[in-house]
Amino acid sequence: MMLKGLLGAEFRLPCRSTLCKLQDQMLEEVQARVLADLEAIAVQGYPTVTISTDLWQGPDSLHFQAIVCHYIDSSWSRQKRLLYLDRLKTSKSAESQVQRIRSVLSNRKILEEWLFAASSDCTASAKNVSSLLGVQTALCSAHICALEPRKQIFLQTRQEAGVQELRPHERASPEVVSFAESVRKRAKGFRYNETKRLELESVQKYVGGRTKRVVLDSAAKWSSSVSMFDTDFLLRTAYAEFAVRHPQRAEIPDDMSDFLVSRDMAGVLRPFQVCTDMLQAGRAPAAVTLPCLTALVANLRADTVLIATDTPGQLEALPAARLQPLAQELRQRLTENVALESRHIEEQRSLLLKCSFLDPRFRAMHFCTQSDKEATIQALYEEAARIPGFAHELEEENSDHGQPVSARDMFLQAMQGDKPVQNAKQRRKALREQLATYGHGANLALDTEPLHFWQEHADALKFLVPLARRYGAVPATTADAERVFSMAKHYFTDSRLSSDSVDKVMQISLNLPEQGLWQDGDIHSH
């Protein structure tokens, strides 16, 4: 009665059927908007849309699949739209995923011929999705970046004689893995033991430091290891200060001598964390992949390493030669082995080179050889020349619309017939000139939005526009599909909504532009 009085006599709470009807209407509007966008940019015979997929295993061991559509709309804005989020209901094989993708596309009236690429992680079943769909393979660059650090600091599951056990990876240093496990064990003790947690807080307050919570990393998000090692260093420096003031306290940990190792290990892993964060930026295109990985290798070979100081949030440069022995061992193995993961890059190297060249921030292609750049330009030239409608556009441009033509001229032109050879030469010459004009330009600043460049130069570089729209839509990672599960997690665990209702709610929430729930920003904003 009190609630009714507050809401007023005219207020009527809608019933469930009304809410469902409103939800379905909003969903139809959202889906119609996506379809209209795709139809507006569709070029018959030249697909420009990329989809990214990811799987998540629910508490009941069933897998959920998320399908996100990436494209550049007619106003030159990079768009990402959730197409599907629901239980897979079958095995997580590539065949099952492809069957579901095709079903979703059919229900949404999205033609398969609009698809150019499918982005996924590097697992075998996920990689096969693109080949079964008959589209270009695009692998998650952040996943590739994380493969080697994960092997170097985590125990790996190995099976021998039918028995599974955890042990260091074949390419990892057992001593480094053992140290990482000891830090992990200590973090668990301080995090889950109430006595140790209170003791840690008291020590931090006593030495005048800000109370900092222990961080525990996970293999699923390996970059949290950097925070774990940094925090371990900061907390143990507090204990070291406490030990100086009270050397008689027996409960102070005995192994205080190795706290610098945690600091240096975090410094060695920090370039991987920065690289992963940039690749996972909400709107980072695949064009940033090769430049990011090139910068990663350069950081691993640099003469200095950025390490944490006693002041939280501040870093300082430390000569690499002064790193602790275990940290030097980790750095050496990472430097030697990171190239071994390039097999995943090589599988899509041609795609990544094209993406980078068509991004005006990286068109100089300093990260590859001159022969690679020339081969990329030649491949794009041949691809552009095959785009349907390419010939028609140039013929319209070169025709003399509006010019007076005599009957005799028209008769003579009919006697000569068409000149397809001459027209083809004109088309290819114009395409060559546009590629040369674009390729000889200087790289734009990293804080430049590449799509603004293409919008401004769409007329001058008209034959390259379809290429820019196709390759600019390929995302660097599958992070958008992964974030969908994080956003919807409370629906899966805390509510009683059916999976179909979850799918509708998430599509409406994420696909309405005014909601702004997608994390946006390119490499310059992170």
From TrEMBL:
Keywords of the record: Metal-binding, Nucleus, Zinc, Zinc-finger
A Pfam family the protein falls into: Dimer_Tnp_hAT
Domain HAT C-terminal dimerisation positions: 447-501
GO cellular component: nucleus
Localization of this protein: Nucleus
GO molecular function annotations of the record: protein dimerization activity; zinc ion binding
Source domain of life: Eukaryota
Keyword field contains Zinc: yes
InterPro entries assigned: HATC_C_dom, RNaseH-like_sf, ZnF_BED_domain_contain
Signal peptide interval: none
Name of the molecule in the record: Zbed4 protein
Gene responsible for this protein: Zbed4
